[in-house]
Structure to design on (137 residues):
């Protein structure tokens, strides 16, 4: 008597370790990704002896670089646009604090113009941001 063997060759992709691979890739990308907070403009802040932290939701950031470019919340704006932009932001959140970041080489005229526009928009809660001064420097 002859026995016949049935050999079946399956065309399957082994998926037993697929979940492990997916989690390893997920962990890899989570640990190697750099999250970019805010761009702003490249400025060198003046030095200060003390500084206080504020909540991010209550802050709108105004950046002025040495050339005079103005950026509000990472959007380049002209001096004439500041009042309308700030009026809209102040109606959404009346407790808004303006974090003013101006380079120490920025002309005072531009800083004054921006401050005037903030006053007209009734954005009077202004915080001037600076770098914390280190001893000997």
């Amino acid at each position: 008597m002859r026995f016949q063997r049935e050999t079946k060759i399956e065309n399957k992709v082994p998926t037993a370790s697929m979940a492990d691979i997916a989690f390893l890739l997920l962990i890899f990308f989570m640990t190697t990704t750099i999250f970019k907070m805010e761009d702003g403009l490249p400025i060198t802040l003046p030095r200060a002896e003390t500084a206080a932290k504020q909540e991010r939701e209550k802050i709108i950031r105004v950046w002025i670089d040495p050339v005079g470019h103005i950026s509000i919340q990472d959007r380049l704006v002209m001096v004439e646009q500041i009042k309308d932009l700030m009026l809209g932001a102040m109606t959404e959140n009346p407790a808004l604090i303006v974090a003013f970041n101006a380079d120490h080489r920025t002309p005072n005229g531009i800083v004054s113009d921006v401050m005037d526009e903030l006053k007209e928009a009734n954005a009077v809660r202004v915080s001037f941001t600076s770098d914390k001064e280190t001893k000997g420097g």
Notes: Residues 47-132 form a domain with the Nucleotidyltransferase; domain 5 fold (CATH 3.30.420.270). The beta strands are 47-48, 59-64, 70-72, 75-77, 97-102, 126-128, 131-132. The first strand starts at residue 47 and ends at 48.
